[in-house]
Protein 1
Amino acid sequence: MKLITAIVKPFVLEDVKGALEQIGVLGMTVSEVQGYGRQKGHTEVYRGAEYSVDFVPKVRVEVVADDTLADKVVDAVVEAARTGKIGDGKVWVSPVDTVVRVRTGERGTDAI
Amino acid sequence: MEGFDSGDTAWMLASTALVLFMTPGLAFFYGGMVRSKSVLNMMMMSLSSMGLVGVLWVLYGYSIAFGNDVGGGLLGNPFEAWGLKGLFVGSYSADVAESSYVLSGSIPALAFVGFQATFAIITVALISGAVADRMKFGAWMLFAGLWATIVYFPVAHWVFAFDNEDAGVTGGWIANQLAAIDFAGGTAVHINAGIAALALAIVVGKRKGWPREPMRPHNLTLVMLGAGILWFGWFGFNAGSALGANGTAAFTMVNTIVATCAAMLGWLVTERIRDGKATSLGAASGIVAGLVAITPSCSSVSPMGAILLGAIAGVLCALAVGLKFRFGYDDSLDVVGVHLVGGLVGTILVGFLADPGSPAAVAGLFYGGGVDQLWRQVVGAVAVLLYSGILTFVIALIVKAIFGGKIRLSDEDEATGIDESEHAETSYDFSSHRGLAGVAGTPRPDAATAGAQSVVAGKEG
């Protein structure tokens, strides 16, 4: 099993969610996060005082998928999240040892 | 009852409510500008001023401000109307003709007492913007009480207490001997609070990390709401200072509209040129700068003069808020840049722009009146500036000494946030899963109950 983590622009979240549903992903975890890559932040001015805001708001989408589905998930996220502009985000895949469904106690692929 | 006017009284009762509403408005205006960990304390400094100063006003504040002068126009007799003694006795019949109670002009004396109470309250609250995020709440309360007593009540006497020969009452020196024009409180309220804010900010010291760390306003929508409420209430402040429902009230109301409009535009244009963007904080700040500047001058300048005066105030205040970075004092929410500078602009421009056709019927320098009114305006402004600046500094040092040198929070408490460390509260609860529970613990839902079962069944898989 794999954990696919995607950091994307907030406004593409609905597209990403729709693309994942289409390829049969049943659940995901979404969180609002902040950070920067090559895009860096922006500056704001309050009563003439300039503040540089380094961290840009992003959305983190986490999906646990079976090994066979993992590449499709990555492709779907990348396609849905791409605008072609700087700051589109990153997607990475990490191995997952085990998954347990809390309600039933099922383990492994059955628990996804 | 002779001299009583129900229309005047109705307007003064309404104005009292309008001006009292300014203080919660100020709490929003200031509260939105601080970080989210300090908003409750910021608003509490305004609200607590309502509690404390309102009581002091009835005890002896009114008497110091409007009691018969004890000499030199410096102070009213604090014992004359202690507890409003002598002001409330009378017969209160539903039929005005059969009633008899103390009048102040054409309105009940108590209407005037209530109206002026709201001025004392907001003047004290204005100062709090300079010490956001860091001043102990107890120290603020002690400061507020001492400052109202020693600085505001006497200065209100100087500026607002007019001689009344028929009643045998002698008033304050700026209103009578000097005859400076300060219709609703450019000196007594705004210069007074502005310079006091500077003195208090210097004694309390800078916020930790200022100006290196960014301290952005956490909620500009609150700031704009506050600016709107302030403008609304300010009609009571200025047009209510006509003390009647009359032509002067209408005149000052129009000036209070148009000068404020011009000031907002002035601030926005300044920002657009200097910073590249017109901001919402700039619009809200421009509104307040314009209101401050038209406060002393609304009875003495023409509407065209009010536009000019407002625009000048908007531009100058927008430039003045940068001074704290140059001189290194942490006047956190720019009480100096907006209220002191705006108050000085409005008070002194009366000397140039006073139109003899206005209710005040005085000619300024530009209307052929020479410098006669101008020097009176400057002397009045400088007198309040010096008195308030020096005494506030001394009061702040006394408060600091009483608190054993610790007038502000410890570094750790300040970093944690003053809402939590001084009031044991948090302003916003955006999350329901922060381990929030009552002292005894909140019982978790029982899976056996019907409600829980239906939820589980509905989310199968």
Protein 2
Amino acid sequence: MNKIYGSAKEALDGLLKDDMFIAAGGFGLCGIPELLLEAIKESGVKDLTFASNNAGVDDFGIGILLQTKQVRKMISSYVGENAEFMRQYLSGELELEFNPQGTLAERMRAGGAGIPGFYTKTGVGTVIADGKEHKDFDGETYILERGIVADLAIVKAWKADEQGNLIYRKTARNFNPAAATCGKICIAEVEEIVPTGSLDPDLIHTPGIYVHRVIKGDHEKRIEQRTVSAA
Amino acid sequence: MWDRNQMAARAAKELQDGWYVNLGIGIPTLVSNYIPEGVDVTLQSENGMLGMGPFPTEDAIDADLINAGKQTITELDRTSYFGSEQSFAMIRGGKIAMAILGAMEVAENGDLANWMIPKKLVKGMGGAMDLVAGVGRVVVVMDHTNKKGESKLLKSCTLPLTGQGVVDMVITNLGVFNVVEGGLELIELADGVTDEEIRAVTEATIVN
């Protein structure tokens, strides 16, 4: 079985349809599947729902799909730094479901692990808890949150082998491992594809069972806040 | 009155040796500059890192290495990386001893509001709701009053909450309070601030 595809467009072939639900890795602009997002934009598919911690910036990441109005709903924890997002949300064009960051990560993890829901203290007593089941355990109140299963997961990793085993690099890991597990199909874009057997099996972050298609590409890896110390 | 750095320095005195700590964006980030001698703390960044180092020099900038404020940073010898699901497992699981974060409003019962202003500012809670619900101790560092000069320490919050009854201590530019039964306990005054002055600009009940 071949998991390696020649381009983002080829890797997405046959998988995209209007109204679909996509889980994306990345935090801010770090570790985002930028090539797959660009190819999704080019495909013209619309009315998408994204589970992604952020929505990119106006001209990078999921932001490019907001510009073209291909996104109907975002499930995110933080959407600052994106003027077009704010405009579409405040005008009612875009639906937004705020999830606390850890709740969003755990929803992906749970969905990928076959766990339909879990209880968490996060958000109790806030608007996040509205309409959710409350339950007390050992004198503390928790709310029920649902696992996420997406039609498609798109992630960015550093290296893959031909089996789809993935290794991430530094904080570019972030949401990618959890997102990878929660898609019915997962596509990973990576900086380098190495032959099977050349990654240390003890150091693989996402086992290839979760990863169905892999592409290698050149990544811009844009930096959102370039902060430096005096040398 | 304390400036931003003095507030950060005061917050740093709350750190204990061996703690794993999460610092929020803004003044809390400055706390790392004032960690007392002999106190060894490990900073967590909720995007997936323990052992956060200082900002990089120009030649050491790495797009794959940022903090939760999306700023470029560096790693240390002790650093470990992990995914967001594990990052919040350690937060929710109570492994992080303390979070120091900013706020828009704090109520006398420990309610915290710091994530949105309806119809005006919609950015999101990020990891703040998880942090305040999960960590051992929550310390808020913020200005005592808003731009209109009104108290940010309230009888009850007017903005949507980040957490209910979660704040343990508030450090403002005017002084330091513990959240206790019945309200706030004033435990320290900032340099040059009188007891009378701080009470005059505090809406919340001060119990002592």
Protein 3
Amino acid sequence: MTELTTPPRTRAATPEDPATAKPAAPRPGTPSRARRALAFWLGRPGLLLSAALLALVLLAALFPALLTSRDPLAGIPGERLLPPGADHPFGTDQLGRDLYARVVHGSALTLRATGLAVAVGLVAGSLVGLLAGYLGGRADDALMRLADVLLAVPGLLLSLALVTALGFGTVEVAVAVGVTSVAMFARIMRTEVQRVARTPYVEAARAAGVRWYTVLLRHVLPNAAAPVLVYAAVDFGAVVLQVSSLSFLGYGARPPQPEWGALVASGRDYLAPAWWLTTLPGLTIAATVLAANRIARALDGEARETP
Amino acid sequence: MTTPPTSSEPEALLAVRDLTITYATRAGPVPAVRGVDLTVRPGEVLALVGESGSGKSTTAHAVLGLLPPGARVDGGTIRYAGTDLAAADESVLRAHRGRAIGLVPQDPAVSLNPVQRVGSQVAEVLLLHGLAADRDTAHARAAELLGEAGLDRPRDRARQYPHELSGGMRQRVLIAIALAARPRLLVADEPTSALDVTVQRTILDHLDTLTRTSETAVLLITHDLGVAADRAGRVAVMARGRVVETGPTDEVLTSPRHPYTKALLAAAPAFAPARRTPSGTAEARDGGTPAPAPADLLTAENLVKEYPHRRTGRHTPPPPAVDGVSLRVARGETLALVGESGSGKSTTARLLLRLTDPTAGRITFDGQDVTRLRGAALRALRRRLQIVYQNPYTSLDPRLPVAEIVAEPLRAFRVAGRAERTRRVAVLLDRVHLPADVARRRPAELSGGQRQRVAIARALALRPDLVVCDEPVSALDVSAQAHVLDVLAELQSEDGLSYLFITHDLAVVRRIAHRVAVMRHGRIVETGPVETVFTEPREAWTRALLDAVPGRGRSAPADD
Amino acid sequence: MKRRLPRTLAQALFVLWAAYTVSFAVLYLLPGDPVTIMAAGGGDASSVSPEQIAELRARYGLDRPVPEQYATALWNAVRGDLGTSVHGGQPVTRLIADALPATLQLAGATLLLALPLGGAVALLGTYTRRRWLRQLLLSLPAAGVSAPTFWVGLLLVQLVSFRWGLLPAFGNDGWSSLVLPSVTLALPAAGLVAQVFAKSLRTALAEPYIDTARAKGAGRARVHLRHAARNALAPPLTVAGVLTGGVLAGSVVVETVFARTGVGRLTATAVTTQDIPVVQGLVVLGACVYVTTHLVVDLLHPLLDPRIAATERPAVTT
């Protein structure tokens, strides 16, 4: 009965969600779980592609040898600046190194830095937000003012300042980028904790005599966590961009280590003769970020649909 | 689609025939309206009555061609003065909306554009349909219309924004918008369900007068049989997408033919008989002096709750939310605390539950002063004092299965082992008439009435002495309401529970309570046994509240 | 509004002070001796002699206790003295003032491109009933925000300058040199504006007051522009404020790619040479930009939404 009280206001169709605009299975009744899953994925080719691409990038980061047998660091002097072809799908660089192998091996560095940065933001931010939201009062004021200040300095500028203090390198860059997202994680966690803490089911638990720490762990945290985790997915794409920007500027991995941003930077000197040196690693970054954002949006949508 | 109006209904203003509407959902198409026939004659009021999900709102919106995305008219005709609106294109619909058919929407709080002055919003109708020569005349006329809709100082009001008006005033603005172009048909979709009864009454009275003088026909959508009884000449009862019964209001309400209508009438609190005479102890002593007697389980003396006002902003501190409330609840008794929104009844409940601390006053429970209880003693009190919340959609943790929710108080007090808890949960679910397999499900899979019964089961887990019910049925349909109220009454007679029943609905009070206390502006204005207060109210405010109850004065149908 | 202004100003001053303090703490107190870092200038620290270090230490007052250092630095900052560059010795404020005009041009051009573009894409994408156009318009912003600016910049240089020879690839000469950098920065900015605006438009379009407007007989265009868009403007306005700071940060990458001079280039150089006073000055500049745009946005919000004008807004909100 109640399902119909709120007519299914299908959110305005987004281009990536053709399934919401065009309802799937025309026959009534609920299709099986597997069929629904199939319909879900087939209705979203973009999402499917994104998932596949991220899986590929992850594979490249963990087991690069599965995707290429070439050495990313050893150049072949006779094969300098070869355009993309059957032998070298991404071409070769000025030292005769295979660009495809460098991109594949570079994904490990980029992903490690991204993962570390997101983890720093997620853990530190959630902790701050949880404390601020649950304690309230002065602790809340102080912590959130600090978060405001972190947000007041543009992200890239803040991470540059941190890199100046911490020094150059992949880990340093990751930490510096991670710190810039602490404030957003803290804010989201705080808002969620406050929202959940005000819900009648939390008050009902209190009224039933449940102790405060049990309430926090059993009701508040699980119900507040979803949006924070979704933001971690949203943050992932942005962090990939920031990490590669910093390594493009030369503050990340030291050459000859292949790292995506650094690959683009080193290709700059051969912009006219070898377009592929900048274009293809850059395209890899763009595609990865696009895929990550697409998946984040899907998670976001699902989190909202199942309250 | 092209059949001309049949001669049997020459005077029909609106004729809906065999209307079928389906919603597209992920699980496939869901029929919402299945072959509905409706006729509205010029100048008459037709009430379309039904519970949520019956398809009544969808039908109403289809008349204006304003179906939500995903809904589609699959068949049938909607003829307005000869034009089939179901097959009409957007430009024809646009010419009809506002001009020929006005809409009074459901929730005045969100139905006005928040960034536009209300005068402009009324004037927009006139300008859209070319009923005013220019902006100035449109605005002048808009102010007049606001005055006609019953707003004081209409010229000033026209320059205000929606957030500066109360809910009742906003609904009057929406009425002014709906009637601005003098339409011949008004579709009123639950026009006052979001408002307090006294406001509801004055607004419906006013709407009556306006439509009667202008001979506007009204299609009144409501879930409230009382409202339909008071306002409509004819009634159409909808259930599961079909009109099950239609006819003159008196006929349908006094001698319903369809079983669904009979069930609906039996469940409707407005038409239900009063509670059986309650146990003597409570009735013997009239309200007023809250002298603690041995039988009193809970007493409150001069409770005051002030909220600290903001430093900036208002110059005078707001009056206390609760301003000197005294009451008592005897063992095995139900005390109803009645009032409109903002009267302080919910704050009083929270004070009594010790979820918030009173500024002044004293609370005793079973003879013990519990006003400042803390720590372990407070937790011990919680075992005996439980609560059922208003909205069963938010009072259950959406992530936990029902078994965990019901067992939570048991876990909190480490009352029983795992196996014993499972057994007790099964018993509790059975006592609130829920099937055993509900234990494994999550709240989202249950209906509102089922959820509320889960909440009751949770409240009963620790075998409390007193349960505070904060508007426990106001979010439910009448049939679910009746079921929940029956469950509560049954549990009381079995266990000797006491209830403090917070509600705005006097009809519900009559059905469940032994005694009633009427609150207004943070004070209790009148208290006494239900029958006494209802038949011989001493205070004018109580009388006003009683008079505003829809459907009052109509006799209940024969019980069958 | 009059009552709000002093409070907003006090908050702005607080943010500036806090940004200065935090950057001081980060840059001077983190492990790693600032003097060694600065003297090495991004090179090898072991090449610096102890005498050099002692001399620097004395020059920057770093031999004195930390609270005193902080108090002196803050007092100087309040008087508009942000110290001097380690390399070259010019005053930091001077360096920033010289670099600022070029970057302001860039930022202005970027916003002038991004705001109308993003707004138009969102409006049209939510308005059109043609499925393909809707899908196209609403997927463009995602691509815009996902592409790394340095890559987009290099692609533009490759195509527009090298292949087609239309516009200069590098430098600061005239307006033609401004086109490619500002387009590079405007694409992600417009993408962000479009995403936020499209989302708030969709939310507004689902509100019940939209049904009221349609029930009056208003047409789609009128409902879209007068009722939905008016109500949907606040989030993109806030984002536009944030973007101004974002453009400043983005100039670090773009000015490097296009070999322009400006604040971004100054930042890149200062970070590379670990010129701490300059970096701190730039952080303070970033906070200033944020505070200013925030102030403007804050004053504009009540014009868009009468509800904000009526109530005091609680605490600091961004």
Protein 4
Amino acid sequence: MNNKFDALKDDDSGDHDQDQGSPKDSEKEKTEDEDKDQNSSKRKMVVPGAGEHPLQYNYTFWYSRRTPGRPASTQSYEQNIKPIGGFASVEQFWRFYSHMIRPGDMTGHSDFHLFKEGIKPMWEDDANKMGGKWIIRLRKGLASRCWENLILAMLGEQFMVGEEICGAVVSVRFQEDIISIWNKTASDQATTARIRDTLRRVLNLPPNTIMEYKTHTDSIKAWVDFHGLVNPSGGR
Amino acid sequence: MEVSRRRILQKHLEPARPLRRCVPADTEPNINAATCAQALRAEEEHETPIGIEQFCKIVNLHKKKEVARISYSRDVLLGLSSCPEAMKKPPFLPEHPIVLMEARDFGPLTHHEMRWNGGN
């Protein structure tokens, strides 16, 4: 359990720098040096360029990959997720997206995460801890198309659930791929129903696709039950 | 003398007391039932010009606060993917196996979609 609270402590310390505009130049350089330690929340705020199309929220792309050959329980999930970059406009989004491989071309146990700026793709993040996610399991070959449709719907504010959406994940696994969308309040049934309906509409899924809602507290419990320890903020 | 002065004071103060409690001192001399009614009517008349138009404006202002979200359809977003600004390499892209040196061409997923449909 200790690790869980350490992670929360990290979050707290990072947030103080985040809320006020751009940091001083000296600070900026320092925080960019520290980037590798998931300190992206300390980075200078991103803003839309002149003439660009602003988004409702700023977002950050993250990437994670489990090192092959090591059991999940020994790897810290938080250490494995790497920020790729943040954006505030449609044009900036396409710049990142066009310079990243498609999920369908990823190998191994890998994930792309696209989360609102300031929210870490972790169950324990303040924005996520009362939340949950819709999960859709896809047979191989569908992930790239579904991921693109999912994130375009999220960036374009097509879910119409106010502030509820936290982010989206695509997970490439051995025999299947999984896409999911995370929201803040798992107990808000009107919201989760609306997200489900929007997903059905925008993803244009094969008719027999199964959709499942899972709360993050259940995910944590399941993880602890399965791995039988200590490190719930560890691998997934 | 003492007696008469007291009388004058009493006569003057008795009717004035209740008025002083609820009305500003400068309007005091004019107060009577008729002017009160007039003042009320004037106030009503002053309010009525906030008619339907203005009312709608006010309501819309409130609505905008709640609803005004920047939204884009899939087509609009895809349309912007081919503009030159969208193809530039981001300035701070980490070196990583999943990061490409040059922008890939998105003829929106046609290759994958073909593969998917073919596999059906």
